[in-house]
Write a structure and sequence with these properties.
Largest sheet: 3 strands, antiparallel
Structural class: mainly alpha
Order of helices and strands: EEEHEEEHHHHHHHHHHHHHHHHH
Bound molecules: carboxymethyl coenzyme *A
Strand order of the largest sheet: 1-2-3
Radius of gyration: 23 Å
Length: 429
């Protein structure tokens, strides 16, 4: 890292701050000693200008619309790789050799079953429970079952916990779905690949043979690749923050799932499809565009805009292609939702408001249509995002634990409440 410095003047005091450069991307100003030297904090709600860690995992250039995992462009990984290969890459830093891939696939596949007692957790939920509520509870509960992989100081236990989580998320997600629709749980099958196994656990029923459709299974796999990691987003930062206290990995991932649920984050795919359904027909689009632009209306075009991308989200382009592939395979012609989506995108990309604010479609804009066509209800969309993002969370969590600079995350604040005052007995208030 090259060393430059920045000078900050506060009143008559002036401090030199080191400027650090990464391999690519903006420099950062190291303010670690600012409080000690100036008795001031920095203020950055929403962390728009704050780097919280060093990381080697994922790089995003939001202006150029670039997303790299360990240096590899997302387009190449989605085109040529499979999800478990991307998992290996995120966890270990390099693409696997053929032998490493075979071994990794074997290890993940042989961790897919969950403890049989877990199934009783599901029956404790109301049958109309949102599957994300079920996931928050059940993933957190894994820490009650796998005591032999919760010692975070042991690299072997950390890796076992990582594999367990990647392997068991599809099983738990499928169980959440089955419980939601009132069908019996389907056990994993070891001769199927990761995504085919997941589709089977979701859509097989005991009364008939389930045949995997390779086009749909490949589409599912690509959707998982597109969601695998996205550097220091809200849920990943939540996982890191929870992990910084020394909490066990299952508890940390449960915290990430809870954060992902919000409509500004992972919940946007569900919200985007609900919005397209509400708009319904192309002729109603102008009304919704006008609402999105109206400052007094809280309505936003879901699936548009991104904190980091000020260009077309590269994942959205691949997702759009995947949508067409899935609809083509299923013989869905003239899907009204797709028609509304494409026209909405066309209008928004030329509308001055969206152009000026650099609001482009993000990954969630097209993923909902694809997932619906695959047979998932909207309530499952964020669960699928959580399933895929688990590897990103766990890779980032591992990186944090191994980082010698790691300390408990503890932001400061600008206090704007009452200064000290004396307690008054109730008779005097
Ligand atoms: N529709 C209409 N106006 C918008 C939208 C939108 N979708 N997104 C942002 N704006 C406007 C916003 O009103 C603001 O205008 P002004 O400067 O006049 O006040 C300006 O654009 C900047 O927006 P912001 O909310 O300050 O930007 P942010 O970086 O804090 O928020 C965002 C990013 C993704 C939360 C936001 O764009 C949004 O709410 N989008 C819709 C939800 C969505 O699709 N989320 C998925 C994100 S991608 C997947 C993931 O990361 O989980």
């Amino acid at each position: 890292m090259t060393e430059q410095s920045a000078t900050l003047k506060i009143g008559d005091k002036s401090v030199d701050l080191a400027v650090k450069s990464g391999t690519i991307g903006p420099d950062v100003i190291d303010i670690g000693a600012l409080y000690k030297n100036t008795a001031s904090f920095t203020y950055d709600p929403g962390f728009t200008s704050t780097a919280s860690c060093e990381s080697k995992i994922t790089y995003i250039d939001g202006d150029a619309g670039v997303l790299l995992h360990r240096g590899y462009p997302i387009e190449q990984l989605a085109e040529h790789g499979d999800f478990l290969e991307v998992c290996y890459l995120l966890l270990y830093g390099e693409l696997p050799t053929a032998a490493q891939k075979k071994d990794f696939d074997y290890r993940v596949t042989h961790h897919t079953m969950v403890h049989e007692q877990m199934s009783r957790f599901f029956t404790g939920f109301r049958r109309d429970a949102h599957p994300m509520a079920v996931m928050c509870g059940c993933v957190g509960a894994l820490s009650a079952f796998y005591h032999d992989s919760t010692d975070i100081t042991d690299p072997h236990q950390r890796m076992v916990a990582s594999l367990r989580m990647i392997a068991k998320m599809p099983t738990l997600a499928a169980m959440a779905y089955k419980y939601h629709v009132g069908q019996p749980f389907v056990y994993p099958k070891n001769d199927l690949d990761y995504s085919s196994n997941f589709l089977r656990m979701c859509f097989a029923v005991p009364c008939e043979e389930y045949v995997v459709n390779p086009v749909l299974s490949r589409a599912m796999d690509r959707i998982f690749i597109l969601h695998a990691d996205h550097e220091q987003n809200a849920s990943t930062s939540t996982v890191r923050l929870a992990g910084s206290s020394g909490a066990n990995p299952f508890a940390c991932i449960a915290a990430g799932i809870a954060c992902l649920w919000g409509p500004a984050h992972g919940g946007a795919n569900e919200a985007a499809l609900n919005m397209l359904t509400e708009i319904g027909t192309v002729d109603r689009i102008p009304e919704y565009i006008a609402r999105a632009k109206d400052k007094n209306d809280p309505f936003r075009l879901m699936g548009f805009g991104h904190r980091v991308y000020k260009n077309y989200d590269p994942r959205a382009k691949i997702m759009q292609k995947t949508t067409h592939e899935v609809l083509g395979e299923l013989g869905v012609k003239d899907d009204p939702l797709l028609e509304v989506a494409m026209e909405l995108e066309r209008i928004a990309l030329t509308d001055e408001y969206f152009v000026e604010k650099k609001l482009y479609p993000n990954i969630d804009f097209y993923s909902g249509i694809t997932l619906k066509a695959l047979g998932f209800p909207t309530t499952m969309f964020t669960v699928l995002f959580a399933l895929a993002r688990t590897v990103g969370w766990i890779a980032q969590w591992n990186e944090m634990i191994e980082d010698p600079q790691q300390r408990i995350g503890r932001p400061r604040q600008l206090y704007i409440g009452e200064p000290q005052r004396d307690y008054l007995p109730v008779s005097k208030r």
